[in-house]
Amino acid sequence: MTSVTVSPKFQVVIPKAVRESMGIVSGQKIQMLTYGDRIELIPIKPMKELRGFLKGIDTSVKREKDRL
Q: What is the pTM for the complete model shown?
């Protein structure tokens, strides 16, 4: 586990190993959430990168009889 230090301006540096493993680049937006007693950072992917990520998904869903 890697630890970071909070600067006097409340800034932190994401360690290089974490940035590389998550594919985070300079200028990229990151969503920050609090969950219980922890902070979670979620990289926001550009829409162009998400295009086609559902290709090949199984769309056969068993539906109830009153649904089309």
A: 0.62
